[in-house]
Write a structure and sequence with these properties.
The structure holds 2 protein chains of 2 kinds. By secondary structure, chain A is of the alpha/beta class. Chain A contains 14 helices and 8 strands. Classes of the chains: A alpha/beta, B alpha/beta. At the A-B interface, helix 5, helix 6 and helix 13 of A face helix 6, strand 4, helix 7, helix 13 and helix 14 of B. The complex binds iron/sulfur cluster (SF4) (2 copies). One iron/sulfur cluster binds next to helix 14 of chain B.
Chain lengths: 404, 443
């Protein structure tokens, strides 16, 4: 992985620069009206915004149509869900209802299209609900192959991408040329490299780049134009590394697993660190690093995106693992890569993908002698005390074991 | 909202034997024979293929001399026999979340407790898991979980979802390629039987024949009184064709027999046979969306027939195929037809398609309204049902109601709640009717 040149903090005080970037990311996070994206759209006539839900969509296609990809991951704990609850029974997770709330309350009224990735049946059904509720907004369920042979799943996926490309051309009124798409791939390659650098930095010096900050910086990337976000990442990485105002604490190191869709409240991530756990890897906001390697920037861009999806993408519950021997190994790899001592399974309540995957992952961890704990959350969970206690006990136990 | 009631209770004392019509008895015998075939497999040397109801490729499975085993049907059987509650608890004890699909947990719990089938005999381990990933995400995880236990070959057949309400050539090609390049070669390998496309054509021809008769039976509910109950009774009717019999002579005979039985009832102006005998009085004609509850199946059904409510169409009876819209297995396009079958099943249809379908049913079957039985642990069906309800009400002007139960977890069947909801629903239907009558008089 090539690390881009690190820019020195502009004002010479890395800690202050870092804090300023985090404050900006926090403001973007807090703004449930997506002001940054609205301003981007209003800056030039004819600009379009295409929203997408968690896990993965090829944002390059949207970017190549000169549109803004906008990541929508629910309303978090700040939104008051007034209408959304009328659409869902109590035994369905929170993210679809707060997403509906965003839609019904007009907070997404500037969005020209919505993509619903193939993540689970709830998001899948939400794609149909969106068609009924917002008939004038383009919306598409974005299916991806569960067969990873080039001639089978690959061809299917290329044709799906071609359809999406046509749709986006229609929605944006912009032709997506191969050249533009290859350029967009290069821009996203860079962004993904920076995200990986950010994760590597945290694994190396977690006290300098704490999980709540990483989360906020990544979240900003769902709203900002990618070029601007890459700039933010570069600035944060350089400043956080250079700043000397934070010191190492006697924390354990954990990987978080199960948070790939409905987001935990920011407070939950903060609580884990307060309880003595450095989060050194996680599956939050996978879209930011779904494709593991650089996608080639020459040749047929759709074929390249398809090959990257089939052969060089993250593993998670929503993807079928054809090889039993490989099942769950991605979590072990994350533990090794980040030098973690244990795993915290944190899944949204009623989340089938995360909760059905969990026992299999736990078996793999047991075999590898990696300790873990598990709990559930909702995006609007308020009470952090039990989670703090559980994480604190876990952290102490890990330290004891590793000290023994 | 349904509150969890008491923990699963021990088996209740046997209740009076339910009345069954001749076709139900025949169906029961067929299913029993099938379970015996499965239990005999270790002795006969027959190989077993586990797969799912939606996207069930029985014709293809039979081409390899494999016996079709359907874990959902096993879970249903456990539910009907009041064993599923303990199985679900067992799976939860093993670490499965209380939030996830109870079919999976019933299956896993059953396995943990010796894997005893409905005939009281041990179910065989599958030789292959055919993961037909059609219309439900849980399937994918379910078979990954089973693969971990059985360590047997697992074959993925991915059915793309009809998100835009249509089947595209790309989807069909993708599925045909999977069949040709992955599913068939792997089934050959597991079974040691060479694939013969003419054998497949033969089975497909037989499927289509039985499908014609099934559709005639389903459509008979247009009569008044309806000679069938398309939800509770429908579950018996779909058993053979959604399970291990599609493509067989047994299925052809069963559906011929069923059809003539139903035609006889039409001729006599009779209603369906309920567990307490023929249903005479039909006051309400309903369309039902969602699966039933199996742990209190008879009690649930009784709440309907006691009030004179007959179900004239249901979406659940389309999870294994939407034949009433004209689809038939086509021997002339053997692999394409299998693909289109999978693509078309109810659970693979987008939400707007589901709304259209339910509205059309209300019109076609002159129903009084829609009833949704929302299954607590089934995201595939349940997420979005409240919008479905509102849309159907808005478009048809007919009243809709919502009840909540679970498929096989007895903790989530609260008889008093369900009964209350149903009673107020029937009152709503009455009010709507008298309102309409008043308007007619005034006009
Ligand atoms: S939180 Fe889980 S169940 Fe809910 S939409 Fe996301 S993946 Fe689906
Ligand atoms: S359709 Fe529903 S009940 Fe059936 S396996 Fe899927 S989640 Fe479970």
């Amino acid at each position: 992985m090539t690390t881009p040149a690190r820019k020195p903090a502009p004002n010479g005080d890395p800690a202050a620069y870092r804090d300023a970037l985090v404050a900006r990311a926090q403001a973007i996070f807090d703004d449930l009206n997506f002001g940054e994206a609205r301003r981007w759209k209003e800056a030039e006539p004819g600009r379009k915004v295409v929203g997408y839900l968690p896990i993965y969509v090829p944002r390059e296609l949207i970017h190549a149509a000169n549109a803004l990809p906008l990541g929508i991951v629910g309303g978090g704990d700040a939104i008051e869900v007034i209408h959304g609850d009328a659409y869902y029974q109590s035994y369905i997770c929170r993210i679809p209802r707060s997403t509906i709330e965003l839609g019904v309350s007009g907070r997404l009224d500037f969005v020209d299209g919505m993509l619903f990735p193939s993540i689970c049946d709830v998001i899948r059904n939400l794609s149909g609900m969106w068609k009924i509720m917002f008939p004038h907004v383009y919306s598409r369920y974005f299916d991806v192959p569960q067969n990873y042979e080039d001639a089978v799943g690959g061809n299917y996926y290329i044709a799906e991408l071609a359809e999406l490309r046509e749709d986006l051309e229609r929605v944006t009124g912009t032709k997506i040329t191969d050249e533009a798409l290859n350029n967009s791939i290069a821009v996203y390659n860079e962004n993904r490299r920076l995200v990986r650098d950010l994760y590597a930095l945290r694994a190396k010096v977690p006290w300098k780049a704490p999980a709540p900050e990483i989360f906020l910086i990544l979240r900003a990337g769902l709203v900002l134009p990618v070029e601007e976000h890459s700039e933010m990442l570069r600035g944060y990485i350089a400043a956080a590394e250079a700043a000397e105002d934070r010191s190492l604490r006697d924390n354990s190191r954990v990987v978080l697993s199960g948070m790939f869709c409905e987001q935990p409240p920011l407070n939950l991530i903060k609580s884990l660190e307060l309880a003595g756990c450095y989060v050194v890897d996680d599956d939050l906001l996978l879209v930011t690093r779904w494709l593991i390697d650089d996608v080639p920037t020459d040749g047929d861009p759709l074929a390249n995106l398809a090959a990257a999806f089939l052969h060089h993408s993250e593993s998670t519950s929503s993807k079928y693992e054809p090889d039993q021997a490989e099942k769950g190994k991605y979590l072990i790899a994350a533990v090794k890569r980040s030098g973690a001592d244990g795993v915290i399974f944190a899944a949204p309540s009623f989340c089938d993908p995360a909760l059905l995957e969990r026992p299999m992952l736990q078996n793999v961890l047991r075999d590898a002698d990696i300790p873990f704990i598990a709990f559930k959350y909702a995006e609007n969970s308020g009470q952090m005390q039990p989670i703090r206690e559980q994480a604190g006990t876990f952290s102490d136990a890990i330290k004891l074991w590793s000290g023994a | 909202m349904t509150q969890p009631t008491a923990r699963p209770s021990p088996a209740k004392p046997p209740i009076a034997e339910a009345e069954k019509d001749a076709s139900m008895l025949k169906q029961k015998a067929m299913m029993a024979a099938h379970y015996d075939r499965l239990a005999d497999a270790p002795e006969t040397g027959a190989k077993v293929c586990s797969t799912f109801v939606p996207g069930n490729l029985n014709e293809l499975v039979m081409c390899f001399d494999l016996i079709n085993n359907l874990p959902e049907v096993n879970a249903i059987q456990s539910g009907l026999r009041r064993k599923s509650g303990a199985y679900v608890l067992e799976a939860e004890k093993q670490g499965h979340s209380d939030d996830v699909c109870t079919y999976v947990k019933s299956d896993i719990g059953m396995m943990a407790k010796g894997n005893i089938g409905p005939n009281g005999r041990k179910m065989p381990d599958p030789d292959v898991l055919l993961l037909s990933y059609t219309g439900c995400f849980t399937f994918l995880k379910w078979f990954e979980l089973l693969r971990e236990q059985y360590k047997c070959p697992t074959i993925m057949l991915h059915t793309p979802y009809q998100g835009d309400g249509k089947i595209t050539p790309n989807m069909v090609q993708y599925m045909v390629r999977q069949l040709k390049e992955s599913v068939i070669p792997k089934l050959e390998e597991v079974s040691g039987v060479k694939f013969d496309i003419d054998r497949l054509r033969e089975y497909l021809k037989k499927s289509a024949e039985a499908e014609d008769d099934l559709v005639a039976v389903l459509k008979s509910a247009r009569h008044k009184p309806s000679p069938i109950d398309a939800f509770f009774g429908g579950i018996y009717y779909i058993g053979p064709i959604f399970g291990a019999f599609r493509g067989t002579d047994d299925a052809i005979q069963y559906y011929q027999f069923l059809r003539s039985e139903v035609e006889e009832r039409i001729a006599k102006g009779e209603g369906p046979v309920t567990p307490e005998g023929p249903m005479q009085d039909q006051r309400y004609r309903l369309v039902v969306e969602g699966p039933p509850n199996y742990t209190s199946f008879r009690q649930f059904w009784k709440m309907f027939y006691d009030e004179g409510a007959v179900v004239v169409a249901s979406s659940y009876s389309k999870v294994g195929g939407t034949y009433d819209f004209g689809f038939r297995h086509d021997p002339d396009r053997p692999l394409e037809t299998l693909a289109e079958y999978c693509l078309g099943v109810y659970t693979n249809r987008s939400l707007p398609m589901r709304v259209d379908m339910l509205c059309d049913y209300i019109e076609e079957y002159e129903a009084d309204g829609l009833l949704i039985n929302s299954i607590k642990s089934c995201n595939s069906f349940s997420a979005g049902q409240l919008l479905i309800m509102r849309e159907v009400e808005r478009r048809t002007g007919k009243p809709a109601a919502f009840i909540e139960t679970d498929l096989v977890d007895p903790r989530y069947f609260s008889p008093a709640n369900v009964k209350n909801r149903l009673e107020s629903y029937f009152q709503m239907v009455e009010q709507k009717r008298s309102g309409t009558r008043r308007k007619e008089v005034a006009a």
